[in-house]
Amino acid sequence: MNRNTVFIHRLVAVCLSTVALTGIASSNPINDSPTPTLTQQPIIIPPAPSIDARGYVLMDANSGKIIAEKNMDKRMPPASLTKLMTLYVTSEAIANGQAHLTDPVRISKTAWQRGGSRMFLKLGSKVPLHDLIEGIIVASGNDACVATAQYIAGNETSFAALMNYNAKKLGMTNTHYVDSTGLPKPNHYSSPHDIATLARAIVTEFPEDYVWYKQKWIKHNGIRQPNRNRLLWRDTSVDGLKTGHTKAAGYCLVASAERNGTRLISVVMGTPSDSSRSDDSAALLNWGFRFYKTYKLFSANNAVTQARTWLGENKTVGLGLQHDMYATIPTGSYPQLKASMVITPKIQAPIKQGKSYGNVIITLNNNTIASAPLVALSDNPVGGLWTKMTDHIAMLFSKKG
What's the whole-model pTM score? Predict the structure, then answer.
């Protein structure tokens, strides 16, 4: 046997040993979740409460799952629920360093004379932006909205353009804003689904600001006003968000509550009274918490699996998710939850961090309920000559990977 033959035999042996490392992961245990208690009997879920509203939606804040709805994509007058977008744009400006909570905002005549619910700002006074935010949330102050809009965007028309830009960014396809307050105007509308999407964005994108939404009282210019969200007074698990009312819109309420690690968002629009919007929201939340639970399945930027890679400096690359993955499922059904993975065959270097190389799929009773791309958690550049030679030969023997 000559030297060349010996070299080839050794090279094949190396490659065959490398093949043993290959393989496509087909399943993976769900982690980051508590060990469930097995139930002896299936949970019977009754229909969602029947409520007297033009439309409503009940959404999980973490997974985004819609648990119950009625006319959720129907366009309706949003009244002061509009102010959630005013607040979202303001939080974004603060997060981007374009505005600061301590900034003094001069109160213009336009803001001062705006009708409807008010914070009772003084004409020409200078009020910290933080105080205006509280005035919008607690007192639903139209004057505070206009002052904030003028401070951030110059005037309310330009601010409305920012509102519509962010609505599009968030996927709010049945929403269009004309002003920052929600006072009735043609072509100013939203939907229960869109407003729930917006509320979810406020909760998840600006958690440091979300604490403002549970404030019960505000006092400004010697006038003390309560938060109109009655659920803040009745249910300690409720910590937001906003009420709304006009003759055209009826009584509206966006509420959010967290119980035992699950956070739900309810939106009711077009109810006949102040008490009904509170009672209906409470009914939806109680029903949702009773019969559904949300589990965190995988954490972002943690390796779900190690995938074999070819021609790279490293033999494997960690694949994971770009965002935390949650599933909202009926109470007691966790044991039936399964995760599987489909990984791109024969992944070859160069590997780019953040690029998708497969998917993780979540099923419940054999029905797909969620999926997300598996992305490379690090780069893996092309290896040296020896690596490329051995991997090229090993790939010929590999049936998978």
Answer: 0.86
